[in-house]
Each structure stands twice: as C-alpha cells, then as structure tokens.
Backbone:
C-alpha cells in the first residue's frame, strides 16, 4: 500500500502542473468576467427602457396605449418633432432604441373598429439581449391592446355571449401520462422543463470523461516520451498497482478540472437564467408525474456516471500504451471522444427506442450511452435499463482493467505501438 | 564464489526477428560483468530481459534462486536498472525524484533518509538537487539516475551504457563510483560499446554480436587468448 500511495501522489504531482493551474484559473476568471457581463446585460434588459413616442393623434385611445407602455417599465420620451421622418432622425441621434409612431386618426379608427396601423421602429445598435427583448415587449403590448379592443367590441355588439367563447369556441384540456401517473398540463412545457433541468448532466459527464481520459493517456505517453517508463516498470511495485495508481490519479485530477470548468459554465449560464422563476403549475405537474429525481434516482445516476468514468479510464489506459509520445497521445484520444459524442448528441435529439435494432445494439454497446440516457430512464421508471447498464459497465470495466494490467505485465507495454511505419526494435 | 545471476540458453524474438539466439552467462557476487558489442548486437535486449522488462522467449534466467518467469516481482526488489536513454520526471525536483524512488525500496523512514544521503553523495549535484529535473543538463540527469540506481545498494545493478552522454571528467567519476560500489558488495551487469571503458571497469567480459556470445572471460584472459593489446582488437579478432 505504501508503494501504491507513493506512486499515486507522484502521479498527482506530475499532473497538477503550473500550466494546468494557470489554465484553470484563467478559465474561471474568463467565465466570471463573461458571467458578470451577462448579468449586467440581463439587468439592463429588465430595467426601465426608453421609448420615443410620436403621437400624431392625441386621442384618448392613443393616451391609453402610451399609458400601457408605462405599466410595463417603459420610460416614455415624447418626440417634439411633428412629422415621422424628423422623429426617426431625432430618435436615431438619441440613445433610445425604440420609436412608436401613432398616426393621426388612430383613436377614431379604433372607435369605429377599423384597422389602423401604428408604426414601430427598432434601432439595432447592437445584437445584445436587451436590445432584442424590447421590441418583443412592445409587440406583446400591441397584441394585448388588440385583444382588449376586440373583446370590448364584441361585448358591445353581442352582449349576451362571452367574447372569449366567441373568439375561441374550441378549447383543449391537455393531460400528460407518464407510466401510471397522469396530470393536467402541456406536454411540450413539461418536456421543455425536464430537458432544461437534465441538460447539464450529459455536459458534466462528457467533460469528466474527456478530461480524465486525456489525463491518463497523457500520463502514460509522457512516461514513454520522457523515458521514465522503463525505470518505473523495474521498481518493486506490481503492474496492477501502476495501472490503478495512474487511473485513479488521472481520474481525480480530471474530476477536479471538470468540476472547476462546470462551475465556470454554471456561473456563466446562471447569469442568464438565474432570475428565471419556474411557475407553480409546472412544479405541481412535475411532482404529480414523478418527473423529479429522488434520492434513489440520484444514487442510480451517480453509480452509472461512476462506472462510465471507470470504463473511460480503463480504455484510456490501453490507448495510452499505444502512444509513442505526448503528440500521438492527443490523436489517440479521438476514438474515445467519438464514443462519448455519439451518445451525447443522441441523448439530446433521438429517441433510442425508435431506432433499428442494430443501431440500438451499437448505442448500448458504448458504455457512455448508459449514463447519458440514465436520467431519462430513471424519470420514466425504466429502472431495469439503468441497472442493466450499470451491470454492463461493471463487467466491461473489469475486463478492461484485467486487459490493461495484462498489457502492463508483459513486454507489450514497451513494444505495442500504433504507427504505420515499420516497427523498429532496439536490440 | 556465489553466483547471483544465471542466464542459460536465453532467446528473445520480436516477431520473426531473433534478437537473442540462446546466450549463456553468469554474474557473481561483487563482480562487474560486461556485455560488449556493436550497436544492434543484443546487449540492451539481454539487459532488459534480466531486469524483468521483457519476457524471455526461451531459456532460463535465475536471480538469487528466483526464476525470472515465475517471480519477477521478487527480482525487482533486489535489482536496479539504469536504461541507456533513461529520463527522470521533469516536474519533480531532484530530491523529490530520489525520495520517490527510495520509497519503493525502503521499509522505514530512516532507511529512506539513508538512501537519500547516499544518493546525494553519488550524484554530487549540490543545491541543484533542489531544482526541477527539467532544468538539468543531460550529464546531470545521468548522474541523478546513477545515484538512483545505486542508492539502495541493490544485489545487482544493471547499467546500460552508464556513461552515455557524459563528458570525460564525469565519465571518469561515474566509473570510479561503479567500481567503489562493486567493491562494497554490489554485483554489476553493464553493457557498453566503449571497449576501453569496459577494460577499465570489468572483472569479466562477454563479447556479443548478432544475438550470440562470441567469447567470454577476464579482459586479460581474452587479450592473452587473442594475442591482443586491448579489447577492441580482441573483439575484431573474435568476429573473424
């Protein structure tokens, strides 16, 4: 055990280099900076926005429309100019991004229930979030005003019938069924919510797998490149311990790096979504349908993630043996990255059950598919799929570790090389 | 005379290439035994097999009673191998590297410190030992590695071209160190294509070419046998 810990800590020391620490700190700083910028943009978008208004009508209706703008946090600036072109020019030169032109006769037309156009001008001075959000709000206000006016019209003309019933004679009552549970709600809203809540899991998994694997492959390749492997293989420590120490150390450093990166990502994305509130309706429906992970769900997901990482480390160890040096190690990581990316993208876009059997077998044979699909399976109560996945990954990991240890126990660790040139043997 | 290492009929294949064609030799206690031969003769392969890096394709290797095929881990505890193109971990400081290697062999903290003290004496790198190995010259790395190989006083040190990359002064120092440790009880199996170095260092010599041992004996015996003034001439005569 002393020899194992000796090697394990050496591996950690070798992996945590100044370059790694600097790049992680830089990454954190960069995402902190970007996150702060994002927050500021979101805050700006939510703050009172200036809108220039040219009211050529000066009627009761036009005043009502402008008042409704004030209620949704618009700061109205009246345009002094008396014609449209001058108003556009004036707004262009000011710091306002929106201009609303209410034409003459607007109130009169509305009173007669005739269609009358108001004109809105959006000055795109940047493509920032706040700039784009304002014109959407303005459109929503006009739509709400339209709705109010049409309801008012119908109420006056046909007072006995509800204007809502007249406009929408057919209404749907939506239900969603998940296994044995049923709840009233919109399927797309629920799917969207579950998707947004579980989207982070594949991202974390992909980063951890890629980081850890890269660490293992590089660690072995660097031993070869620096000509330290031969010495290490002649010291009194069994080869399985060498493999395990390298895998664990790389796994740990990869995990720490991935957590730091994820923390950065979370900070960055949190700056845009941090103020989002989930409606009580959606929360109720989610609870009724059991679409939230409970303790057992998190445990199953954690175990699935853990075995996927172990499989990746074992595979990376074998690939590392094939590397001649650090450079070739970087290209050897590619097959592993593909194996991670296939289920990663499939988990976003495809329903595995709808695929043909050979494709399904191929997907399930990739160990990383199981944790990517585990969240869905747990939420949809397909526990057997999760358990079989864990069992498969456990068996695969055991096979891969035995294989890696056997390679390290023989002279293949020195003679196995993946290269197209004719093998050169040192005599 | 106690035999430390016994090699009998050792063969090694790399695919269809027969690198060692059934070689025999033995190394005794406190003896410096050298394999000499040109590049590609099979010296490094023989040393790699004895140091448990490569598995023999045929033949028998016994070290202090342990069969190399059956018990390589026991052998690793008693040997120390210095490969020809060995390196050290560039991100570790010299002392950290030596401590890391010493920890594999020492059973107590005191023993680790004893190994380190010895290594510092052999390496003779002074304060540079506190600097990262990545900043060392090739010669400094070689001395550090030689210190690593000898600090544990192994039953046998296997040294592949021990003075490779060293200048004349450092080479002389290294040869003296090897001689000193052999006198103190370490058996040494080394390889070199530098015949003069071998003549200075070795108690016995085996001449190897194309995977076969051509002849063996003390440098004097060989010189007498081939009526030569030095080992270079002996080797040329043996080849003919």
Residues:
């Amino acid at each position: 055990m002393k020899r194992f810990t000796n090697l394990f800590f050496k591996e950690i020391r070798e992996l945590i280099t100044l370059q790694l620490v600097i790049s992680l700190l830089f990454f954190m700083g960069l995402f902190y900076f970007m996150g702060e910028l994002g927050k500021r943009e979101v805050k700006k978008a939510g703050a009172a926005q200036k809108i220039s208004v040219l009211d050529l009508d000066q009627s009761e209706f036009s005043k009502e429309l402008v008042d409704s703008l004030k209620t949704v946090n618009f700061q109205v600036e009246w345009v002094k100019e008396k014609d449209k072109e001058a108003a556009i020019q004036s707004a262009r030169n000011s710091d306002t991004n929106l201009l609303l032109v209410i034409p003459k006769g607007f109130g009169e037309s509305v009173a007669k229930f005739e269609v009358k156009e108001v004109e809105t001008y959006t000055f795109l001075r940047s493509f920032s979030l706040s700039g784009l959000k304002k014109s959407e709000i303005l459109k929503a206000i006009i739509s709400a005003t339209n709705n109010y006016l049409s309801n008012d019209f119908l109420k006056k003309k046909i007072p006995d019938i509800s204007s809502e019933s007249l406009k929408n004679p057919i209404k749907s009552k939506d239900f969603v069924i998940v296994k044995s549970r049923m709840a009233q709600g919109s399927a797309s809203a629920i799917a969207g919510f579950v998707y947004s809540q579980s989207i982070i899991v594949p991202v974390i998994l992909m980063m951890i797998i890629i980081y850890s694997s890269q660490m293992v492959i590089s660690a072995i390749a660097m031993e070869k490149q620096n000509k330290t492997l031969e010495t290490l293989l002649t010291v009194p420590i069994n080869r399985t311990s060498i493999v395990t120490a390298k895998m664990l150390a790389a796994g740990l450093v990869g995990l720490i790096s991935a957590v730091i990166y994820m923390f950065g990502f979370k900070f960055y994305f949190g700056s845009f979504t941090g103020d989002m509130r989930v409606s009580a309706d959606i929360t109720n429906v989610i609870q009724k349908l059991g679409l939230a992970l409970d303790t057992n769900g998190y445990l199953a997901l954690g175990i699935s993630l853990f075995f996927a990482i172990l499989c990746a480390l074992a595979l990376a160890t074998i690939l590392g043996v094939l590397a001649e040096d650090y450079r070739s190690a970087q290209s050897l990581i590619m097959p592993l990255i593909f194996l991670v990316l296939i289920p990663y993208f499939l988990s976003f876009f495809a329903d595995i059950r709808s695929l043909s059997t050979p494709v399904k077998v191929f997907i399930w044979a990739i160990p990383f598919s199981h944790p990517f699909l585990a969240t869905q399976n747990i939420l949809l109560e397909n526990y057997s799929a999760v358990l079989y996945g864990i069992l498969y990954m456990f068996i695969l990991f055991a096979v891969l570790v035995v294989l890696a240890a056997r390679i390290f126990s023989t002279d293949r660790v020195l003679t196995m090389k993946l290269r197209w040139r004719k093998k050169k043997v040192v005599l | 005379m106690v035999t430390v290492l016994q090699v009998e009929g050792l063969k090694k294949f790399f695919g269809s290439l027969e690198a060692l064609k059934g070689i025999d030799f033995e190394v005794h206690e406190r003896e410096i035994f050298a394999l000499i031969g040109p590049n590609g003769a099979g010296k490094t392969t023989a040393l790699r097999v004895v140091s448990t890096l490569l598995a023999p394709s045929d033949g028998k290797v016994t070290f202090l009673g342990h069969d190399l095929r059956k018990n390589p881990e026991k052998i690793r505890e008693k040997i120390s191998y210095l490969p020809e193109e060995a390196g050290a971990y560039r991100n570790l400081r010299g002392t950290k590297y030596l401590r890391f290697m010493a920890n594999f062999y020492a059973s107590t903290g005191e023993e680790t410190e004893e190994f380190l003290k010895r290594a510092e004496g052999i390496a003779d790198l002074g304060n540079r030992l506190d600097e990262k190995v990545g900043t060392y010259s090739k010669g400094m790395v070689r001395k550090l590695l030689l210190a690593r190989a000898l600090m544990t006083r192994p039953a046998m040190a296997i040294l592949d071209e021990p003075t490779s990359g060293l200048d004349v002064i450092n080479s002389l120092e290294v040869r003296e160190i090897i001689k000193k440790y052999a006198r103190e009880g370490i058996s040494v199996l080394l390889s070199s294509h530098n015949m003069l170095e071998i003549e200075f260092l070795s108690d016995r010599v085996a001449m190897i070419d194309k995977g076969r041992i051509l002849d063996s004996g003390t440098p004097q015996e060989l010189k007498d046998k081939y009526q030569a003034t030095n080992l270079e001439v002996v080797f040329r005569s043996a080849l003919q």
